TrEMBL record:
Compartments it resides in: Membrane
Gene: 107365186
Record CDD domains: ABC_6TM_ABCC_D1, ABC_6TM_ABCC_D2, ABCC_MRP_domain1, ABCC_MRP_domain2
Listed SUPFAM superfamilies: ABC transporter transmembrane region, P-loop containing nucleoside triphosphate hydrolases
All residue ranges annotated as the ABC transporter domain in the record: 412-635, 1051-1284
Main localization of the protein described in the UniProt heading: membrane
Record GO cellular component, one term: membrane
Gene Ontology MF annotations: ABC-type transporter activity; ATP binding; ATP hydrolysis activity
Residue ranges of domain ABC transmembrane type-1 in the record: 93-365, 719-1013
Membrane topology term: Multi-pass membrane protein
Protein name per Swiss-Prot or TrEMBL: Uncharacterized protein
Gene3D superfamilies: ABC transporter type 1, transmembrane domain, P-loop containing nucleotide triphosphate hydrolases
Length: 1309
């Protein structure tokens, strides 16, 4: 649970001077490191305190709480948007004021440009002096510097504001998860929540800067129009016409963009939810060969999702095409009106118009549309987040002061309690339940599967809705759930759960929970990492770790939901005697169990059926009234000693314990490693081998090549490149044409004054105007068409690449060996399909489009400037070289920061997923605050990376701006030095184009760096495209596999060796044995002996050496699906998927309803399914949470029954069932699979003693193999020795069962 802070260096931003802050020079140290070497996490600094998780959340949380209260008072729905406006509205207005000042400088630059161009005009009709021109030039350079300086401050501030909003919403969403009611958890899922956190909340990153332009954009349009009227008069009507069409057009496209965004978000939720379920249950999916079924569903969702993304991209394409073309369209409209009114066109007027229209390019033609689209998208995200935050909250009832004083701690009072999972449901799960428990008593709850036992536990934990009556638990509670829950940490961390470590207490808990020998067997003892969902632990070990967590708590009431079913009988006896009825003696305990041998030792017994109390009282009281549980109890043999009775309950692992102790080499006792430095070193060593690797160095050209190859073939990309340069050529030629037109128009005006014609100027100039107007119109049409085609091809390449890459890695993931999923957390894998694919879907496409526009525009400007002023080329080359050097330095640092940011993001998602899964446990211990603190710690690491990235980007931006200002200054000095050599049109063209690319230059260069950092997502996705592959799913050799295979189902293992990936030591060594058709084999061995590995070999979950031959065919020659389809398994952990009963039993729709119903009846589950709304189409929530664990295990059994395969694997399939159901299942298995070959992994000797043969394995080798009776006849045999350790009476009983079974099979002997 507790993870160390990754970034620990104190915040540098808070330590530096004011000047260093506003110039961003505080990042220079980090950039200097990038010059010499690859940075590391130790080179980064923490973010400012105001950007940390806790500080970012406090004020917003207060406003959201007030909004909820106001909503209740006024009987209206609370508005998340209002809470956001209250928290961040004033701050945004302040930024808006500064941005207005900043954009006003654009108008100042236009005025100064007019004076400069006027000086260079042929007649200089307003008599601008050289000194005035010099002052205007200095003013132009200074205004440009101020424009860039203010803009960088605002961008930094708004980025930090967006970061704080996202942080606050993430924290509030997380806190909401911790308060969700049980009913609410069935209406949402991890995938939905993760999609909100990863995609929806990231909208605020961009929005906070652009949103200001929703108000500022129209104001800038009005200001420019007023200026234009002053310059052009009536001709400014052209601008009005363009703006009248442009602004509504952007609003309409934004509206439809909102629609597509909402549809995309829902589809992404659905896809991620299915992905999360699929990855979590990949072992079962592979065994049942359901990969194609899941692939088809997810691929279909992705296809629909991509169609919505394409629709949104088309709207974006229209907006960006207009953004790229609009300034020229505005100029065309205004100048056309001007000349049609019969007025002469001079360079000053032409380039003031061009400059004013360029001033509108960002505020009006880009930011309004972009901000409107982003706003609508964000409103969808806010709406979705609000829906999550307004889900039903768990209701808890604190005891009154008088009750606290009068009631004894540890007492439980349940009075006429009726309760249900969902308060809106008609089904009442608990009905009129009453009982009382005094402090220190042990209550054992028993009942059939689905009788309401877990529902009662949830009532004691205040997890479900109380309909009537009351349920009071006095004092602190500790809880051990039915489904073991572990988080990614060490065994010790899972037990301590963030509490203080007391060695004496800890050792007692370990001993009482039978964990000492397990811990000693682990490579790092108690400091061994258990992995996500405890994949390194067996089911029994997970159950005991979960139990130890509850026992370590100093509580008044301990609630145990069937913790004994996942462990072997001997361990169960130990846990009951030494822990529940030993270490915790004197505490109030509530225990659900199916193991009825323990009820004699309970103080009180509660028998439940269908949500009602059948009986409550002591064992003697219930015995006296003739409760029929007596028949399930084993009558004690008075002649047996206490030791003998305990020996009878010994599990196979317990029977091996003495031998293991003798064989175990002496090592440092893992329980004694208490030195914190040593512990930290051990944990770090394990984390390094498991943590996500951060790729170092620059991105290889292969990444770009793979990306573009995924987007189109060579011919298409070549046409796209040609179209790009052609389009840019048309844009630059259009600008040059204005310069030529204005100079020619001035000459025409002069010739008219010198002519003797009697006609007016309009008539005189009409042929000239008509010719130029048609040329300009042709250029405009060509420009629009070429820009649209160019950007359309760009988007097509990006979206095709996105689609191809997703499909490629998804297909690869499905065919990846199981070992990959066992060593990578779900959050890490999902990160590729959420955040990384989100960046590839949208961000990279936009990056590439704007790079296309901006960088080509820069090239065009340099060419035009070079033609007019050749000396500028030398300066431009120097500036470009400087920029490229700055970019290289920036990239070295930015690449690492982005990669580390991605790495620090994954644990946040894992924390959210883990919390959601362990919600009941966390709340039972009242440890919500500890988990919130951990989330803040993870957020702080991520925010530190983001803050460093913001700062480094701004410093680079300012550096690039200064280089651009230097270029402008050089150009102005050159033209002022030789004023007679440059006509006004050319000077106006060069200055206006340089001004138009001022922001574009640093933005374009920074875009290339951002594009490369975003391409890290492509690199990360491509890594999954190189995952190792399983062998082919289908059999390659034609005619090898008969349709009826396996007909007999006999097996032969020949020289089988199995070594897991990453290990050099084989876990199975030279296995050789045969299984005849229809034989029932019991597999016996201690934990770690190789039983599970044997199953892995049979299913080929891991490739092995040697051969396994079934019906004469080596399974290595078969396709994996052809093999796995013919083997059924009933696993120990029952896993269900979101969907229906039918989709869980038959996802491939292979069986008829009648067949499914008849199978349900064989395990007495038909009635339960019939009572559910929809029958076979009844909804199954995520993980099957709306069904009891026993019901889930029955459904998993039905899956195997439906397949009717000739080979069956059983792995303690009835551990969570009551004795009646257990007996029914055992009889069903014997009847239904009597002609099948059955391999049973044994946890208890009595379950396999009557089987045809016993396979005894140890350390991966076959020790003995044969019929149980014959093995017991071998005096020095290992199996004989194992059975004899169970005690004389129990071993005699086992011997008799084996003997009877043997002679029934061999009657003549």
């Amino acid at each position: 649970m507790e993870q160390p802070q990754l970034i620990t260096k104190p915040c540098r931003y808070e330590q530096v001077s004011f000047l260093s802050r506003i110039t961003f020079w505080w990042n220079a140290t980090t950039l200097r490191i990038g010059l010499n070497r690859e940075p590391t996490k130790d080179d980064l600094y923490k973010c400012p305190e105001e950007d940390e998780g806790y500080k970012s959340t406090v004020q917003f949380e207060r406003n959201w709480d007030r909004e909820i209260k106001d909503g209740k008072l006024n009987k209206r729905k609370p508005s998340l948007l209002k809470a956001l406006i209250k928290t961040y509205g004033i701050e945004t207005i302040i930024y808006g004021i500064f941005l207005s000042i900043d954009d006003t400088l654009n108008l100042v630059q236009t005025f100064l440009l007019g004076s400069i161009v006027r000086f260079f005009s042929t007649n200089n009709y307003r008599n601008v002096t050289w000194n005035e021109c010099l002052y205007c030039s200095i003013g132009l350079v200074l205004s440009l510097f101020l424009y860039g300086f203010i803009r960088h401050q605002i961008i930094m501030r708004t980025q930090r504001q967006g970061l704080r909003i996202r942080t606050a919403l993430t924290a509030v969403v997380y806190k909401k998860i911790l308060t969700l009611s049980k009913a609410a958890t069935t209406k949402t899922d991890v995938g939905y929540i993760l999609n909100i956190v990863t995609n929806d909340l990231s909208r605020f990153d961009e929005l906070m800067f652009s949103i200001i332009y929703i108000v500022l954009g129209p104001l800038m349009g009005i200001a420019v129009l007023i200026y234009m009227i002053n310059v052009l008069g009536l001709a400014s009507l052209g601008l009005v016409i363009v703006l009248v069409f442009l602004i509504p057009y952007q609003a309409i496209t934004a509206k439809y963009s909102d629609k597509f965004r909402a549809q995309t978000a829902k589809l992404t939720d659905k896809r991620i939810k299915l992905m999360e379920e699929m990855i979590s249950a990949i072992r079962i999916i592979k065994m049942f060969t359901w990969e194609k079924s899941f692939a088809d569903i997810i691929s279909e969702i992705r296809k629909t999702e991509m169609s919505k993304i394409r629709n949104a991209a088309f709207l974006k394409l229209l907006n960006i095409s207009v953004h790229a073309s609009a300034p020229r369209i505005m100029v065309f409209a205004c100048l056309l009106f001007h000349v049609l009114l019969g007025r002469p066109l001079d360079p000053e007027l032409a380039f003031i118009t061009l400059s004013l229209c360029n001033a509108l390019r960002l505020p009006v033609t880009y930011h309004i549309g972009n901000a409107t689209g982003l706003l609508f998208e964000t409103l969808v995200s806010v709406r979705r987040t609000q829906e999550l935050l307004l889900l039903e909250t768990r209701k808890t009832q604190s005891l009154t002061r008088s009750e606290n004083e009068s009631l004894n701690k540890g007492s439980i009072y349940v009075d006429k309690l009726s309760a249900k999972w969902d308060k809106n449901s008609e089904i009442v799960n608990l009905k009129n339940l009453s009982f009382k428990l005094e402090p220190g008593e042990l209550l054992v709850i028993i009942g059939t599967v689905g009788s309401g036992k877990t529902c009662l536990v949830m009532s004691l934990l205040e997890e479900i809705a109380v309909v009537s009556g009351s349920c009071k638990v006095v004092g602190r509670k500790a809880y051990s759930p039915q489904e073991s829950w572990t988080f990614a940490g060490t065994i010790r961390q899972n037990i301590l759960f963030g509490r203080e470590y007391y060695q004496s207490k800890y050792s007692k808990v370990i001993e009482s929970c039978s964990l000492k020998k397990d811990i000693e067997s682990f490579p790092y003892g108690e400091n061994t990492l258990v992995g996500e969902k405890g994949y390194t632990l067996s089911g029994g070990q997970k159950a005991r770790v979960t139990l130890a967590r509850a026992v370590y708590e100093d509580a008044d009431v301990y609630i145990f939901d069937d913790p004994l079913s996942a462990v072997d009988p001997g361990v169960a006896e130990h846990l009951f005697d030494k822990c529940i009825n030993g270490y915790l003696k004197g505490k109030t305990r509530v225990l659900i169990t199916h193991q009825l041998q323990f009820i004699r030792r309970a103080d009180k017994i509660l028998i439940m059926n269908e949500g009602e109390s059948v009986a409550f009282g002591t064992f003697e009281q219930l015995n006296n009234v003739g409760i029929d549980f007596i028949k399930f109890l084993k009558e004690p043999n008075d002649s047996e000693t206490e030791n003998q009775k305990q020996e009878e309950m010994l599990s196979i692992d317990e029977l091996y314990s003495d031998e293991a102790t003798k064989q175990k080499p002496k090592i440092l006792n893992p329980l004694k490693v208490t030195n914190e430095v040593e512990v930290a070193k051990i944990i770090e060593e394990q984390l390094e081998s498991r943590e996500e690797k951060v790729t170092l160095g620059s991105l290889g050209s292969r990444v770009y090549l793979d990306y573009f190859r995924a987007g189109g073939n060579l011919i298409f990309i070549t046409i796209f490149i040609i179209m790009t340069f052609l389009s840019q050529g048309i844009i630059n030629f259009t600008d040059w044409w204005i310069s030529k037109w204005s100079d020619d128009s001035l000459e025409l005006s002069q010739s008219y004054k010198n002519s003797t014609t009697n006609s007016d100027f309009a008539t005189y100039s009409r042929p000239f105007i008509t010719r130029n107007a048609y040329i300009y119109l042709g250029l405009m049409v060509s420009l629009l068409a070429s820009v649209f085609i160019r950007l359309g091809m760009n988007y097509r390449i990006c979206l095709k690449s996105s689609e191809t890459l997703h499909n490629r890695i998804f297909a690869r993931l499905l065919k990846t060996p199981l070992a990959f999923f066992e060593t990578n957390p779900v959050g890490r894998i999902l990160n590729r399909f959420t955040r990384d694919m989100g960046i590839i879907d949208v961000t990279i496409a936009n990056n590439l489009v704007f790079m296309n526009l901006n960088l080509l525009q820069i090239v065009g400007v340099i060419i035009i400037t070079g033609i007019v002023l050749p000396i500028i080329i030398i300066v431009a080359v120097l500036v470009v070289c400087l920029m490229w050097f700055v970019r290289r330095v920036y990239l070295q640092t930015a690449r690492f920061i982005v990669r580390l940011e991605a790495q620090t993001r994954s644990p946040i998602y894992t924390q959210i997923a883990t919390t959601y899964e362990g919600l009941t446990t966390i709340r039972a211990f009242q440890y919500e605050a500890k988990f919130i603190k951990q989330l803040y710690r993870l957020i702080d690491d991520n925010n530190s990376c983001k803050f460093m990235y913001f700062g480094v980007s701004r410093l680079i931006g300012m550096t690039l701006d200064l280089s651009m200002i230097a270029l402008l200054a050089t150009m102005l000095i050159s033209v002022l030095s030789f004023p007679e050599k440059f006509p006004g049109g050319e000077v106006g063209l060069v200055i206006s184009t340089l001004l138009s690319v001022f922001g574009s230059l640093q933005y374009g260069i920074r875009l290339t760096a951002e594009f490369e950092t975003n391409m890290i997502s492509v690199e990360r996705v491509l890594e999954y495209g190189r995952l190792p592959l399983e062998p082919s799913w289908d059999t390659i050799k034609a005619g090898l596999l008969p349709k009826t295979w396996p007909n007999l189902a006999d097996m032969e293992f020949k020289n089988v060796y199995l070594t897991y990936p990453g290990s050099i030591k084989p876990v199975l060594k030279n296995l050789n044995f045969t299984v005849s058709s229809g034989e029932k084999i019991g597999i016996v061995g201690r934990t770690g002996a190789g039983k599970s590995s044997l199953i892995s070999v049979l299913f080929r979950l891991t490739e092995f050496d040697g051969s396994v031959i079934i019906d004469g065919i080596d399974i290595k020659q078969l396709g994996l699906h052809d093999l796995r389809n013919k083997i059924s398994i009933i696993p120990q952990d029952p896993i269900l998927f979101t969907g229906t009963i039918r989709s869980n039993l038959d996802p491939l729709t292979e069986y008829s309803d009648d067949f499914i119903w008849s199978t349900l009846k064989t395990v007495n589950l038909a009635r339960t399914i019939e009572c559910m709304p929809g029958g076979l189409d009844a909804i199954v929530t995520q993980g099957g949470s709306n069904l009891s664990l026993g019901q889930r295990q029955l459904l998993c059994l039905i899956r195997a029954l439906l397949q009717r395969n000739k080979i069956m694997i059983l792995d303690e399939a009835t551990s969570n069932m009551d004795h009646q159901t257990d007996t029914l299942i055992q009889e069903t298995i014997r009847a239904e699979f009597k002609d099948c070959t059955v391999l049973t992994v044994a946890h208890r000797l009595n379950t396999i003693i009557d089987m045809d043969k016993i396979l005894l394995i140890d350390a991966g080798q076959v020790l003995e193999y044969g019929e149980p009776y014959l093995l017991l006849k071998q005096e020095t045999g290992h199996f004989k020795s194992l059975v004899s350790k169970t005690g004389s009476s129990y071993s005699n009983m086992l011997y008799k069962i084996a003997e009877k079974s043997y002679f029934m099979k061999h009657p003549k002997e």
